[in-house]
Design goal:
Strand order of the largest sheet: 1-4
Structural class: mainly alpha
Order of helices and strands: HHHEHHHHHHHHHEEHHEHH
Distance between the termini: 33 Å
Helix content: 40-55%
Largest sheet: 2 strands, antiparallel
Number of helices: 16
Radius of gyration: 21 Å
Number of strands: 4
Strand content: under 5%
Length: 325
C-alpha cells in the first residue's frame, strides 16, 4: 500500500543529512560566494533561518494529512476504508522533530542545533521535549495494518489505485520530486552546520562566557562552556545514547524548571541568544556554487505546504481524547 512507502521518507532524510557532514568538509576549497535570498523574515523569537523555505514538511504529518484527503476518494472507488485515528498538529510536529532530530531539532530544546529553549517552554516543561502523544503513532500503526486492508487496496485497478494519491498530492503540493527532496536535504544540512559553526564565532564565545558567569550562582559542578551543554549530566534529565538523546524521566521537577528559567534569562541578558542567531543567519546568506545549484532546482515554498498540511489536520482529523493534555 502507498502509505508504507511514504512512511520511510523521514528516516531516509536523517541518514542523508547526518552523512553529508564529511562531504561538506571534503569540499571546503569550493568558495562560499553565491548569495542566497532568504526565504523567511529574520525573527530571533521564531528562530527562522534563510533556507527554511526549502525544507519539506515532516514525513508523518504529510502521510497523515494526505490520507485524510485520500479517504473520500478511496471510498468512492469502492474501498472499505476504516476511519482514520485521531492526531493533533502539535503531536505530529513533535513526532517528526524527534524522528528527524539531526535536521529539525533535538528532542530536548536546550540541545537543539537550531531552536534554543524559550522562556515559555522553560516554565512549562524545563528541559523536556514536547510530548509526542498527540501523534497517536500506535493508532496510526494499528490502522495501517488493519486485516485485509492492504490486500483490498492492492486489488483496486491500477488507474483507480493511483488516481487518489496523485490527486491528493496535487491539491496539497506534496509528493516532492527528487530535486525538491535534494534541495530540502541541502538546506537542512547547511542550517545544521551553520548552527554548529556559529557557536565558534568569537562574538558568540564571548557571550557564552557572560552566560556562564550569569549561571554560576546555581552552583552546578558541571556547568558547561555554553548553553548547548544544558541540561548537565548531574541534573539527570537527559542522557545520550550514541546520537540519540534519551529523557530519563517524564516528570518535570521544580528544580529543573528553576534552572531552565535562569538559563533562558542568562542567554538573553548576556546577549548570547541574539548573537548566536545573528551568527547563524549570516552564515546562511552565501553558499557554494554546487549548493546554490541544488537549491535553485528545488522549491522554496515548502513553508506554505507545511501550513496547508496543518490546516488539513486541524479541520479534518478526528477529535483527540479530552484528557490528552
Amino acid at each position: 500500500m502507498h502509505i508504507t512507502t511514504r512512511a520511510a521518507k523521514t528516516g531516509t532524510l536523517v541518514l542523508v543529512v547526518a552523512g553529508l557532514g564529511g562531504a561538506v568538509l571534503h569540499g571546503l576549497p569550493e568558495p562560499v560566494d553565491h548569495p542566497v535570498r532568504p526565504t523567511t523574515t529574520k525573527d530571533v523569537s521564531a528562530w527562522t533561518m534563510p533556507l527554511d523555505g526549502w525544507v519539506v514538511p515532516g514525513g508523518h504529518e504529510q502521510d497523515y494529512a494526505e490520507m485524510l484527503v485520500d479517504l473520500p476518494c478511496l471510498r468512492e472507488a469502492g474501498l472499505d476504508v476504516p476511519p482514520l485515528p485521531w492526531a493533533t498538529v502539535a503531536g505530529l510536529h513533535a513526532h517528526d522533530d524527534t524522528v528527524d532530530a539531526a535536521a529539525r531539532a533535538n528532542p530536548s530544546p536546550a540541545l537543539s542545533t537550531s531552536r534554543p529553549l524559550s522562556a515559555e517552554l522553560a516554565s512549562a516543561r524545563g528541559y523536556h521535549g514536547p510530548s509526542t502523544d498527540g501523534a497517536n503513532v500506535g493508532g496510526w500503526r494499528e490502522w495501517g495494518y488493519a486485516p485485509g486492508f492492504d490486500e483490498a487496496f492492492a486489488a483496486l485497478p491500477a488507474g483507480v489505485r493511483d488516481r487518489c494519491p496523485e490527486r491528493t498530492r496535487r491539491s496539497l503540493g506534496t509528493g516532492a520530486s527528487g530535486e525538491v527532496q535534494s534541495a530540502s536535504e541541502t538546506a537542512q544540512r547547511l542550517t545544521h552546520l551553520a548552527a554548529l559553526s556559529a557557536r565558534q564565532d568569537p562574538a558568540v564565545t564571548i557571550a557564552a562566557a557572560a552566560w556562564r558567569t550569569c549561571m554560576a550562582p546555581l552552583g552546578l559542578a558541571d556547568l558547561p562552556e555554553g548553553p548547548e551543554g544544558m541540561p548537565t549530566p548531574s541534573m539527570r534529565v537527559t542522557a545520550r545514547d550514541a546520537e540519540e538523546v534519551v529523557t530519563l524521566s517524564d516528570e518535570v521537577g521544580d528544580d529543573e524548571i528553576a534552572v531552565a528559567d535562569r538559563d533562558v534569562r542568562c542567554q538573553r541578558s548576556s546577549g548570547y541568544r541574539q548573537t548566536l542567531y545573528d551568527a547563524e543567519w549570516d552564515r546562511l546568506l552565501r553558499v557554494t556554487a554546487s549548493d546554490a545549484a541544488v537549491l535553485a532546482a528545488g522549491d522554496p515554498g515548502q513553508r506554505a505546504v507545511a501550513a496547508r498540511l496543518d490546516r488539513v489536520v486541524e479541520q479534518h482529523a478526528p477529535a483527540a481524547p479530552a484528557d490528552l493534555g
